[in-house]
Amino acid sequence: MAFNDLRSYLADLDAHGQLRTIKTPVSTEIQLGAIARLACETYGPAALFENLVGYPTFRGLAAFETYSANPGNRAWRLARALGLSDDTTGDQIVDFLAGFRDTAGVAPVLVETGPVHENIVRDRGELLDYLPIPHLHPGDGGPYVNTIGFFVLESPDRSWVNWAVARCMKLDGDRMVGMTAVMQHIGMLRREWDKIGTSVPFALVLGADPITTLISGGPLAKFGASEGDIIGAIRGEPLEVVECVTSSLRVPAHAEIVIEGYIDLTESADEGPMAEYHGYIDKAKNTTGAPDFGVYHITAVTHRNDAIYPSTCAGKPVDEDHTITGPGVAAVSLNALRAASLPVEKAWMVPESASHVLAVTVSDGWSGEFPDAHELCRKIGNAVKTMDHSAYWVQRILVTDNDIDPTSPSDLWWAYATRCRPGDDSIILEDVPIMALSPIVNTREERTKTRGRVEVLNCLIPPYADDLSVTSAALRQAYPHDAIAFAERTYLGE
Questions:
Q1: Where is the 3-octaprenyl-4-hydroxybenzoate carboxy-lyase-like C-terminal domain (predicted)?
Q2: What are phi and psi for residue 207, nearest 5 degrees?
Protein backbone atom coordinates (compact mmCIF):
# COMPACT_ATOMS: atom_id res chain seq x y z
CA MET A 1 0.00 0.00 0.00
CA ALA A 2 1.40 3.39 -1.02
CA PHE A 3 0.46 6.29 1.25
CA ASN A 4 -1.05 9.16 -0.71
CA ASP A 5 0.31 11.82 1.61
CA LEU A 6 2.21 12.41 4.83
CA ARG A 7 -0.98 12.49 6.90
CA SER A 8 -2.08 8.98 5.99
CA TYR A 9 1.40 7.71 6.87
CA LEU A 10 1.25 9.47 10.25
CA ALA A 11 -2.20 7.96 10.89
CA ASP A 12 -0.64 4.54 10.23
CA LEU A 13 2.22 5.26 12.64
CA ASP A 14 -0.33 6.36 15.24
CA ALA A 15 -2.35 3.16 14.80
CA HIS A 16 0.81 1.15 15.55
CA GLY A 17 1.90 3.20 18.56
CA GLN A 18 4.70 4.90 16.62
CA LEU A 19 3.46 8.51 16.86
CA ARG A 20 3.33 10.82 19.87
CA THR A 21 1.09 13.87 19.57
CA ILE A 22 2.37 16.74 21.72
CA LYS A 23 -0.21 19.31 22.74
CA THR A 24 2.03 21.19 25.18
CA PRO A 25 3.14 24.58 23.75
CA VAL A 26 6.52 24.09 22.07
CA SER A 27 8.78 26.86 20.78
CA THR A 28 10.45 26.49 17.39
CA GLU A 29 13.48 28.10 19.05
CA ILE A 30 15.55 25.13 20.36
CA GLN A 31 12.69 23.37 22.21
CA LEU A 32 11.41 21.52 19.13
CA GLY A 33 14.96 20.46 18.28
CA ALA A 34 15.60 19.14 21.79
CA ILE A 35 12.49 16.95 21.62
CA ALA A 36 13.49 15.74 18.16
CA ARG A 37 16.92 14.72 19.42
CA LEU A 38 15.38 12.91 22.40
CA ALA A 39 13.02 11.01 20.09
CA CYS A 40 15.86 9.92 17.81
CA GLU A 41 18.36 9.04 20.51
CA THR A 42 15.82 6.85 22.36
CA TYR A 43 14.29 5.26 19.22
CA GLY A 44 11.05 6.85 20.35
CA PRO A 45 7.83 7.51 18.46
CA ALA A 46 7.63 10.22 15.83
CA ALA A 47 6.76 13.60 17.36
CA LEU A 48 3.79 15.63 16.03
CA PHE A 49 3.66 19.12 17.52
CA GLU A 50 0.09 20.45 17.72
CA ASN A 51 0.84 23.71 19.54
CA LEU A 52 3.74 25.65 18.04
CA VAL A 53 4.19 28.92 19.92
CA GLY A 54 3.34 31.84 17.64
CA TYR A 55 2.11 29.69 14.74
CA PRO A 56 -1.47 28.62 15.47
CA THR A 57 -2.22 27.52 11.90
CA PHE A 58 0.77 25.19 11.54
CA ARG A 59 1.96 21.96 13.13
CA GLY A 60 5.48 20.56 13.41
CA LEU A 61 6.90 17.08 12.89
CA ALA A 62 10.15 15.27 13.73
CA ALA A 63 11.64 11.75 13.85
CA PHE A 64 9.01 10.33 11.48
CA GLU A 65 11.16 8.32 9.05
CA THR A 66 14.01 7.27 11.30
CA TYR A 67 14.58 4.02 13.19
CA SER A 68 11.54 2.65 15.02
CA ALA A 69 11.05 1.65 18.63
CA ASN A 70 10.74 -1.98 17.51
CA PRO A 71 14.00 -3.67 18.62
CA GLY A 72 13.22 -6.66 16.41
CA ASN A 73 13.23 -4.52 13.27
CA ARG A 74 14.55 -0.98 13.57
CA ALA A 75 13.78 -0.45 9.86
CA TRP A 76 10.03 -0.94 10.47
CA ARG A 77 9.09 2.68 9.60
CA LEU A 78 11.04 2.52 6.36
CA ALA A 79 9.29 -0.72 5.43
CA ARG A 80 5.88 0.81 6.17
CA ALA A 81 6.81 3.94 4.24
CA LEU A 82 7.60 1.85 1.15
CA GLY A 83 4.48 -0.29 1.46
CA LEU A 84 6.47 -3.43 2.33
CA SER A 85 5.61 -6.06 4.94
CA ASP A 86 6.32 -5.29 8.59
CA ASP A 87 9.07 -7.90 8.84
CA THR A 88 11.08 -6.51 5.92
CA THR A 89 14.67 -6.02 7.07
CA GLY A 90 17.06 -3.23 6.17
CA ASP A 91 19.08 -5.30 3.69
CA GLN A 92 15.83 -6.45 2.03
CA ILE A 93 14.82 -2.80 1.66
CA VAL A 94 18.15 -2.15 -0.08
CA ASP A 95 17.61 -5.09 -2.42
CA PHE A 96 14.09 -3.81 -3.16
CA LEU A 97 15.32 -0.32 -4.01
CA ALA A 98 18.18 -1.67 -6.13
CA GLY A 99 15.59 -3.15 -8.48
CA PHE A 100 14.38 0.35 -9.39
CA ARG A 101 17.79 1.79 -10.28
CA ASP A 102 17.39 1.04 -13.99
CA THR A 103 13.60 1.10 -14.20
CA ALA A 104 11.86 2.99 -16.98
CA GLY A 105 9.67 4.50 -14.27
CA VAL A 106 6.16 5.85 -14.14
CA ALA A 107 6.04 9.59 -14.81
CA PRO A 108 4.02 11.88 -12.54
CA VAL A 109 0.59 12.97 -13.76
CA LEU A 110 -0.40 16.65 -13.81
CA VAL A 111 -3.66 17.54 -12.06
CA GLU A 112 -5.39 20.91 -12.04
CA THR A 113 -5.15 21.50 -8.31
CA GLY A 114 -4.49 19.71 -5.03
CA PRO A 115 -4.43 20.16 -1.26
CA VAL A 116 -1.07 21.96 -1.37
CA HIS A 117 -2.88 24.86 -3.06
CA GLU A 118 -5.54 25.22 -0.36
CA ASN A 119 -3.64 28.34 0.74
CA ILE A 120 -1.60 30.55 -1.62
CA VAL A 121 0.46 33.34 -0.06
CA ARG A 122 2.45 35.73 -2.25
CA ASP A 123 1.16 39.31 -1.97
CA ARG A 124 3.05 40.15 1.19
CA GLY A 125 6.62 40.70 2.24
CA GLU A 126 8.70 38.49 4.48
CA LEU A 127 7.12 35.24 3.37
CA LEU A 128 9.50 33.12 5.42
CA ASP A 129 8.38 34.82 8.64
CA TYR A 130 4.96 33.32 7.95
CA LEU A 131 6.32 29.79 8.46
CA PRO A 132 7.32 27.96 11.70
CA ILE A 133 10.95 27.48 10.69
CA PRO A 134 12.76 25.84 13.60
CA HIS A 135 16.10 26.86 15.06
CA LEU A 136 17.07 23.28 15.85
CA HIS A 137 20.52 23.43 17.52
CA PRO A 138 22.00 26.09 19.82
CA GLY A 139 25.13 26.12 17.62
CA ASP A 140 23.37 26.53 14.27
CA GLY A 141 23.94 29.75 12.32
CA GLY A 142 20.20 30.37 12.18
CA PRO A 143 16.88 28.65 11.59
CA TYR A 144 17.14 26.04 8.84
CA VAL A 145 14.24 26.25 6.40
CA ASN A 146 15.05 22.84 5.00
CA THR A 147 16.43 19.75 6.64
CA ILE A 148 14.20 17.01 5.17
CA GLY A 149 12.26 18.60 2.32
CA PHE A 150 13.47 18.47 -1.28
CA PHE A 151 14.24 21.04 -3.95
CA VAL A 152 12.74 20.77 -7.41
CA LEU A 153 15.02 22.06 -10.19
CA GLU A 154 14.96 21.61 -13.96
CA SER A 155 17.74 21.78 -16.51
CA PRO A 156 17.53 24.91 -18.70
CA ASP A 157 16.15 22.86 -21.61
CA ARG A 158 13.63 21.16 -19.25
CA SER A 159 14.87 17.70 -20.23
CA TRP A 160 15.79 16.77 -16.66
CA VAL A 161 13.79 17.34 -13.47
CA ASN A 162 15.63 16.67 -10.22
CA TRP A 163 14.21 16.32 -6.70
CA ALA A 164 16.94 16.48 -4.06
CA VAL A 165 17.24 17.10 -0.33
CA ALA A 166 19.71 19.89 0.47
CA ARG A 167 20.15 22.06 3.53
CA CYS A 168 18.97 25.68 3.44
CA MET A 169 19.19 28.42 6.10
CA LYS A 170 16.94 31.43 6.55
CA LEU A 171 18.67 34.76 5.84
CA ASP A 172 15.72 37.10 6.32
CA GLY A 173 11.98 37.18 5.62
CA ASP A 174 12.40 36.78 1.86
CA ARG A 175 15.73 35.00 1.33
CA MET A 176 17.53 31.83 2.30
CA VAL A 177 20.97 30.45 1.53
CA GLY A 178 21.56 26.81 0.70
CA MET A 179 23.96 24.19 -0.52
CA THR A 180 24.21 23.31 -4.22
CA ALA A 181 27.21 21.01 -3.91
CA VAL A 182 28.94 19.93 -7.11
CA MET A 183 28.76 16.23 -6.19
CA GLN A 184 24.95 16.42 -5.95
CA HIS A 185 22.58 16.54 -8.90
CA ILE A 186 21.20 19.85 -7.64
CA GLY A 187 24.71 21.32 -7.94
CA MET A 188 25.18 19.87 -11.42
CA LEU A 189 21.94 21.53 -12.54
CA ARG A 190 22.86 24.83 -10.94
CA ARG A 191 26.05 24.83 -13.02
CA GLU A 192 24.05 24.34 -16.21
CA TRP A 193 22.19 27.57 -15.36
CA ASP A 194 25.51 29.25 -14.54
CA LYS A 195 26.53 28.75 -18.18
CA ILE A 196 23.60 30.80 -19.48
CA GLY A 197 23.77 33.38 -16.70
CA THR A 198 20.12 33.53 -15.62
CA SER A 199 18.46 32.94 -12.27
CA VAL A 200 17.32 29.40 -11.43
CA PRO A 201 13.63 28.71 -10.70
CA PHE A 202 13.16 26.39 -7.71
CA ALA A 203 10.46 24.91 -5.53
CA LEU A 204 11.08 23.53 -2.04
CA VAL A 205 8.66 20.76 -1.07
CA LEU A 206 8.10 20.14 2.64
CA GLY A 207 6.02 17.23 3.88
CA ALA A 208 5.56 14.94 0.88
CA ASP A 209 4.38 11.34 1.15
CA PRO A 210 7.01 9.01 2.71
CA ILE A 211 8.10 7.27 -0.53
CA THR A 212 8.72 10.62 -2.19
CA THR A 213 10.75 11.88 0.78
CA LEU A 214 12.82 8.68 0.90
CA ILE A 215 13.66 8.61 -2.82
CA SER A 216 14.35 12.35 -3.05
CA GLY A 217 16.69 12.08 -0.07
CA GLY A 218 18.87 9.39 -1.65
CA PRO A 219 20.98 8.89 -4.78
CA LEU A 220 18.91 6.16 -6.44
CA ALA A 221 18.19 8.21 -9.58
CA LYS A 222 21.00 8.30 -12.13
CA PHE A 223 22.34 11.48 -13.73
CA GLY A 224 19.59 12.75 -16.03
CA ALA A 225 16.89 10.52 -14.47
CA SER A 226 14.00 12.00 -12.52
CA GLU A 227 13.08 10.88 -9.03
CA GLY A 228 9.39 11.36 -9.79
CA ASP A 229 9.50 8.51 -12.33
CA ILE A 230 11.12 6.12 -9.83
CA ILE A 231 8.58 7.11 -7.19
CA GLY A 232 5.75 6.25 -9.58
CA ALA A 233 7.31 2.86 -10.29
CA ILE A 234 7.61 2.06 -6.58
CA ARG A 235 4.05 3.24 -5.92
CA GLY A 236 2.72 1.26 -8.86
CA GLU A 237 0.86 4.37 -10.07
CA PRO A 238 1.81 7.90 -11.10
CA LEU A 239 2.32 10.53 -8.44
CA GLU A 240 -0.09 13.47 -8.78
CA VAL A 241 1.62 16.84 -9.28
CA VAL A 242 0.43 20.43 -9.68
CA GLU A 243 2.11 23.38 -11.36
CA CYS A 244 3.63 26.02 -9.12
CA VAL A 245 1.86 29.38 -8.92
CA THR A 246 4.93 31.48 -9.90
CA SER A 247 6.78 29.11 -12.24
CA SER A 248 6.17 26.11 -14.47
CA LEU A 249 7.83 23.68 -12.03
CA ARG A 250 5.66 20.81 -10.82
CA VAL A 251 5.36 19.62 -7.24
CA PRO A 252 3.44 16.84 -5.43
CA ALA A 253 -0.21 17.83 -5.18
CA HIS A 254 -0.59 16.35 -1.68
CA ALA A 255 2.49 17.92 -0.11
CA GLU A 256 2.05 19.94 3.07
CA ILE A 257 4.01 23.08 2.10
CA VAL A 258 5.78 24.40 -1.01
CA ILE A 259 8.12 27.41 -1.09
CA GLU A 260 8.62 28.89 -4.57
CA GLY A 261 11.24 31.25 -5.90
CA TYR A 262 14.53 31.61 -7.76
CA ILE A 263 18.25 31.28 -7.04
CA ASP A 264 20.21 34.47 -7.73
CA LEU A 265 23.55 33.29 -9.14
CA THR A 266 25.19 36.68 -8.58
CA GLU A 267 24.44 37.06 -4.88
CA SER A 268 26.54 35.94 -1.91
CA ALA A 269 25.75 35.33 1.74
CA ASP A 270 27.22 33.44 4.68
CA GLU A 271 25.74 30.06 5.58
CA GLY A 272 26.13 27.98 8.74
CA PRO A 273 27.36 26.67 11.03
CA MET A 274 25.01 23.68 11.09
CA ALA A 275 24.83 20.37 12.91
CA GLU A 276 25.20 17.84 10.10
CA TYR A 277 24.59 14.17 9.34
CA HIS A 278 27.88 13.13 10.97
CA GLY A 279 26.59 14.24 14.38
CA TYR A 280 28.76 17.33 14.93
CA ILE A 281 28.45 21.08 14.51
CA ASP A 282 31.07 22.37 12.10
CA LYS A 283 32.01 25.80 13.42
CA ALA A 284 33.07 27.12 10.03
CA LYS A 285 30.79 29.40 8.03
CA ASN A 286 30.38 28.93 4.30
CA THR A 287 30.41 31.87 1.90
CA THR A 288 28.66 31.76 -1.46
CA GLY A 289 31.58 33.13 -3.42
CA ALA A 290 32.04 29.53 -4.59
CA PRO A 291 29.27 27.75 -6.50
CA ASP A 292 28.54 25.31 -3.66
CA PHE A 293 25.99 27.72 -2.15
CA GLY A 294 23.25 29.88 -3.55
CA VAL A 295 20.92 32.66 -2.36
CA TYR A 296 17.25 31.76 -2.79
CA HIS A 297 14.61 34.49 -3.19
CA ILE A 298 11.03 33.62 -2.21
CA THR A 299 8.12 34.47 -4.52
CA ALA A 300 5.29 32.41 -3.00
CA VAL A 301 4.31 29.94 -0.31
CA THR A 302 1.49 27.44 -0.77
CA HIS A 303 0.26 25.01 1.86
CA ARG A 304 -2.50 22.75 3.07
CA ASN A 305 -4.92 23.74 5.80
CA ASP A 306 -3.44 22.99 9.24
CA ALA A 307 -0.15 22.29 7.48
CA ILE A 308 2.61 20.13 8.97
CA TYR A 309 6.17 21.51 8.86
CA PRO A 310 8.66 18.58 9.00
CA SER A 311 12.25 18.72 10.23
CA THR A 312 15.07 16.34 10.97
CA CYS A 313 17.40 17.35 13.77
CA ALA A 314 20.85 16.01 12.94
CA GLY A 315 23.01 14.63 15.71
CA LYS A 316 24.36 11.43 17.16
CA PRO A 317 22.96 8.53 15.10
CA VAL A 318 20.33 7.45 14.29
CA ASP A 319 18.07 10.02 12.59
CA GLU A 320 16.62 10.62 9.12
CA ASP A 321 19.95 11.92 7.85
CA HIS A 322 21.02 8.26 7.96
CA THR A 323 17.83 6.29 7.30
CA ILE A 324 16.72 8.27 4.26
CA THR A 325 20.06 8.62 2.46
CA GLY A 326 21.68 5.35 3.53
CA PRO A 327 19.39 2.79 1.84
CA GLY A 328 19.77 4.54 -1.52
CA VAL A 329 23.56 4.66 -1.23
CA ALA A 330 23.60 0.96 -0.33
CA ALA A 331 21.28 0.12 -3.25
CA VAL A 332 23.48 1.94 -5.76
CA SER A 333 26.56 0.25 -4.24
CA LEU A 334 24.93 -3.18 -4.48
CA ASN A 335 24.16 -2.64 -8.15
CA ALA A 336 27.73 -1.48 -8.82
CA LEU A 337 29.16 -4.55 -7.08
CA ARG A 338 26.86 -6.89 -9.00
CA ALA A 339 27.76 -5.17 -12.27
CA ALA A 340 31.42 -5.85 -11.47
CA SER A 341 30.57 -9.58 -11.11
CA LEU A 342 31.81 -9.65 -7.53
CA PRO A 343 30.47 -12.35 -5.15
CA VAL A 344 28.52 -9.87 -3.01
CA GLU A 345 25.24 -10.86 -1.37
CA LYS A 346 24.21 -7.83 0.70
CA ALA A 347 25.10 -4.19 1.24
CA TRP A 348 24.02 -1.89 4.05
CA MET A 349 24.99 1.70 4.86
CA VAL A 350 25.31 1.44 8.63
CA PRO A 351 23.13 4.15 10.25
CA GLU A 352 24.92 3.80 13.58
CA SER A 353 28.12 4.91 11.81
CA ALA A 354 26.43 8.18 10.78
CA SER A 355 26.36 6.84 7.22
CA HIS A 356 30.14 6.55 7.03
CA VAL A 357 30.49 2.76 6.83
CA LEU A 358 29.20 0.50 4.06
CA ALA A 359 28.94 -3.11 5.23
CA VAL A 360 29.20 -5.73 2.48
CA THR A 361 28.76 -9.49 2.81
CA VAL A 362 30.24 -11.95 0.34
CA SER A 363 29.13 -15.45 -0.60
CA ASP A 364 30.82 -18.72 0.32
CA GLY A 365 33.35 -19.92 -2.20
CA TRP A 366 34.84 -16.51 -2.95
CA SER A 367 38.33 -17.91 -2.31
CA GLY A 368 37.99 -20.02 -5.46
CA GLU A 369 37.75 -16.83 -7.53
CA PHE A 370 40.40 -14.63 -5.86
CA PRO A 371 43.95 -15.42 -4.76
CA ASP A 372 43.43 -13.74 -1.39
CA ALA A 373 40.96 -11.69 0.63
CA HIS A 374 42.86 -8.44 0.07
CA GLU A 375 42.38 -8.59 -3.69
CA LEU A 376 38.65 -9.21 -3.23
CA CYS A 377 38.38 -6.32 -0.75
CA ARG A 378 40.30 -3.97 -3.03
CA LYS A 379 38.05 -4.84 -5.98
CA ILE A 380 34.98 -4.22 -3.81
CA GLY A 381 36.39 -0.87 -2.73
CA ASN A 382 37.24 0.19 -6.27
CA ALA A 383 33.79 -0.79 -7.56
CA VAL A 384 32.11 1.30 -4.88
CA LYS A 385 34.38 4.33 -5.19
CA THR A 386 34.19 4.50 -8.99
CA MET A 387 30.39 4.42 -9.20
CA ASP A 388 28.47 7.65 -9.80
CA HIS A 389 28.03 10.62 -7.45
CA SER A 390 26.95 8.26 -4.65
CA ALA A 391 30.59 7.26 -4.13
CA TYR A 392 31.49 10.23 -1.95
CA TRP A 393 29.19 9.07 0.87
CA VAL A 394 31.25 5.98 1.69
CA GLN A 395 34.24 6.64 3.99
CA ARG A 396 34.88 3.05 5.06
CA ILE A 397 33.89 -0.35 3.69
CA LEU A 398 33.62 -3.36 5.97
CA VAL A 399 33.71 -6.69 4.10
CA THR A 400 32.40 -9.75 5.96
CA ASP A 401 31.39 -13.36 5.47
CA ASN A 402 27.71 -14.09 4.85
CA ASP A 403 27.09 -15.42 8.36
CA ILE A 404 27.12 -11.77 9.44
CA ASP A 405 23.93 -9.69 9.37
CA PRO A 406 25.11 -6.32 7.99
CA THR A 407 22.18 -4.54 9.67
CA SER A 408 23.23 -5.81 13.11
CA PRO A 409 25.80 -3.60 14.89
CA SER A 410 26.65 -6.48 17.27
CA ASP A 411 27.37 -8.79 14.30
CA LEU A 412 29.56 -6.15 12.68
CA TRP A 413 31.49 -5.50 15.88
CA TRP A 414 32.03 -9.25 16.33
CA ALA A 415 33.30 -9.64 12.77
CA TYR A 416 35.60 -6.63 13.04
CA ALA A 417 37.02 -7.58 16.44
CA THR A 418 37.66 -11.28 15.70
CA ARG A 419 38.39 -11.43 11.96
CA CYS A 420 40.14 -8.17 11.04
CA ARG A 421 43.81 -8.58 11.94
CA PRO A 422 45.40 -5.43 13.38
CA GLY A 423 47.74 -3.82 10.91
CA ASP A 424 47.24 -6.50 8.26
CA ASP A 425 43.65 -6.19 7.09
CA SER A 426 43.28 -2.47 6.41
CA ILE A 427 43.40 -1.71 2.68
CA ILE A 428 43.76 1.98 1.82
CA LEU A 429 42.38 3.41 -1.42
CA GLU A 430 44.13 6.64 -2.42
CA ASP A 431 42.69 9.70 -4.17
CA VAL A 432 39.06 8.56 -4.31
CA PRO A 433 35.83 10.56 -3.79
CA ILE A 434 35.18 11.54 -0.17
CA MET A 435 32.56 13.56 1.71
CA ALA A 436 34.03 16.99 2.42
CA LEU A 437 31.54 17.56 5.25
CA SER A 438 32.80 14.60 7.27
CA PRO A 439 34.92 15.50 10.32
CA ILE A 440 37.46 12.81 9.36
CA VAL A 441 38.27 14.97 6.33
CA ASN A 442 40.30 17.47 8.30
CA THR A 443 42.55 19.19 5.77
CA ARG A 444 41.54 22.12 3.58
CA GLU A 445 43.10 20.47 0.55
CA GLU A 446 40.95 17.35 0.87
CA ARG A 447 37.80 19.38 1.52
CA THR A 448 38.44 21.49 -1.55
CA LYS A 449 39.26 18.54 -3.81
CA THR A 450 36.62 16.21 -2.25
CA ARG A 451 39.13 13.44 -2.84
CA GLY A 452 41.26 11.56 -0.36
CA ARG A 453 41.78 8.21 1.36
CA VAL A 454 39.17 5.54 2.12
CA GLU A 455 39.68 2.38 4.16
CA VAL A 456 38.46 -1.11 3.26
CA LEU A 457 38.45 -3.46 6.24
CA ASN A 458 38.91 -7.16 5.55
CA CYS A 459 36.63 -8.83 8.13
CA LEU A 460 36.58 -12.22 6.43
CA ILE A 461 37.56 -15.24 8.50
CA PRO A 462 41.34 -15.47 8.03
CA PRO A 463 42.96 -18.52 6.43
CA TYR A 464 44.33 -20.97 8.97
CA ALA A 465 46.45 -24.06 9.03
CA ASP A 466 44.13 -27.07 9.38
CA ASP A 467 44.88 -27.51 13.07
CA LEU A 468 44.04 -23.84 13.81
CA SER A 469 40.84 -23.46 11.78
CA VAL A 470 37.65 -22.07 13.33
CA THR A 471 33.93 -22.13 12.48
CA SER A 472 31.11 -20.02 13.86
CA ALA A 473 29.45 -21.20 17.09
CA ALA A 474 26.37 -19.00 16.52
CA LEU A 475 22.92 -20.60 16.66
CA ARG A 476 22.10 -20.33 12.95
CA GLN A 477 25.50 -21.57 11.82
CA ALA A 478 26.36 -24.25 14.40
CA TYR A 479 23.09 -26.10 15.09
CA PRO A 480 20.93 -28.33 12.89
CA HIS A 481 17.53 -27.04 11.74
CA ASP A 482 15.57 -29.40 13.98
CA ALA A 483 17.45 -28.25 17.07
CA ILE A 484 16.84 -24.58 16.16
CA ALA A 485 13.14 -25.26 15.62
CA PHE A 486 12.90 -27.09 18.95
CA ALA A 487 14.62 -24.22 20.76
CA GLU A 488 12.24 -21.67 19.23
CA ARG A 489 9.14 -23.71 20.11
CA THR A 490 10.28 -24.39 23.63
CA TYR A 491 11.81 -21.04 24.57
CA LEU A 492 9.89 -18.56 22.41
CA GLY A 493 6.61 -20.42 22.10
CA GLU A 494 6.74 -20.26 18.31
A1: 324-448
A2: 85, 50
CA angle 121, 126, 128 (to 5 degrees): 75
Report the C-alpha gap between 179 and 357 in whole angstroms: 24
**Is-above-0.85 flag for pTM?**
yes
Antiparallel, parallel or unpaired: β 274-275 and 150-154: unpaired
Show me where the domains of the chain are located: 6-311, 341-461
Asked if 55 and 23 count as a contact pair (C-beta separation under 8 A), the reply is: no
DSSP strands (E only) in 338-476: 344-349, 357-362, 396-401, 426-433, 451-459
Which ranges constitute the DSSP H helices of 116-248?
185-196, 210-216, 227-235
CA angle 128, 132, 138 (to 5 degrees): 100
Specify the CATH number for 6-311; select among 3.40.50.300, 2.30.110.10, 1.20.1250.20, 1.10.10.60.
2.30.110.10
Phi, psi torsion values for 162, nearest 5 degrees: -120, 135
Q: What is the pLDDT along the chain (494 residues), one digit of tens a residue?
A: 789 999 999 999 999 999 999 999 999 999 999 999 999 999 999 999 999 999 999 999 999 999 998 878 899 999 999 999 999 999 999 999 999 998 889 999 999 999 999 999 997 778 999 999 999 999 999 999 999 999 999 999 999 899 999 999 999 999 999 887 766 777 788 788 888 888 999 999 999 999 999 999 999 998 888 999 999 999 999 999 999 999 999 999 999 999 999 999 888 888 999 999 999 998 766 654 445 678 999 999 999 999 999 999 999 999 999 999 999 999 999 999 999 999 999 999 999 999 999 999 999 989 888 989 999 999 999 999 988 778 889 999 999 999 999 999 999 999 999 999 999 999 999 999 998 888 888 788 888 888 999 999 999 998 765 667 888 999 999 999 999 999 999 999 86
Q: Are 370 and 410 in contact (CB under 8 A)?
A: no
The C-alpha atoms of residue 106 and residue 91 are separated, in whole angstroms, by 25
CATH 3.40.1670.10 fits 341-461, yes or no: yes
Nearest to 245 by CA among 259, 225, 231: 259
Which among 276, 352, 369, 445 is annotated as catalytic? Answer: 276
Which one-letter amino acid corresponds to residue 244?
C
| Known catalytic membership, residue 192 | no
CB 98 within 8 A of CB 335: yes
